[in-house]
Write a structure and sequence with these properties.
Largest sheet: 6 strands, mixed
Distance between the termini: 22 Å
Helix content: 25-40%
Structural class: alpha+beta
Shape: globular
Strand content: 15-25%
Number of strands: 8
Radius of gyration: 19 Å
Length: 202
Amino acid sequence: SLRVMDLQAAAAHKRQRLVDALQRIAGSAVAVAAVVHDGQLAYRHRVRLHADGKRMGYRRGGSHQVLALGACPVLEPALEQALRDIARVCERCKVVGEIDAVAGVDRLALQIDPEREPDHAHQAAAELLKIAAGVIVADKKRPRRYGEPYVLRTHPAMPGPPRFYLEPGVFSQANWAMNAELVALVLAAVPAHLHVLELHAG
C-alpha cells in the first residue's frame, strides 16, 4: 500500500511507474508531471466488493478469500455506511459474485455480477431498492435493471447543477477532487472553440 509513504513520495513513485510504462510502449523518454491532490482521505465515490455466499467484503491480497467489511478510510462516509446494509442483504440472499457501488449527490446505485445462482442476485436486487436508487443484475441469461441504477454528481470545475451521469460498473475517476484537477488541466490546455472526446480502454 502506498499509504505507508508520505504524499510526495507516493506521487513520485506513481510518476516513475508511468514513465517506465510509457518508455516501454513509446520506446523513448516522455516528460510526465505529477499532479498531487491534497492528501485528504474519504474521497472514493465508488467501490468493488466480492460476495462468496456467506460474506460480502474485500478480498485478501493475493487470495480469493473474502474478508468481513471493516473501516475503509478512503471511502466517502455515506458510501461506507451504506455498505454495511448492502452486505446484510447480500449475505442473507447468499449472493455469489462481484458488487459495484457508486455514490452520487444524494443517492446510490449498484451492480451485481453473479458468478453462480443468479436468482439469489435478483432476490437481493429487489431488497436493495430500499437502500439504493437502482440495481443492475448483470446476469448473462437474464440481465435486468431494477429502479434507476445511476447517480448524478456535480463537478467543482464546472459550476451549476449535477451534470455527470454515472452508472455502477462503469469507469470513473474514483477521487472526485482529482477528477476536477484533471478536467481543469484539460480545460486550460484546449482552446475554447474545440471539443474534447475522452476515450477509455481497459
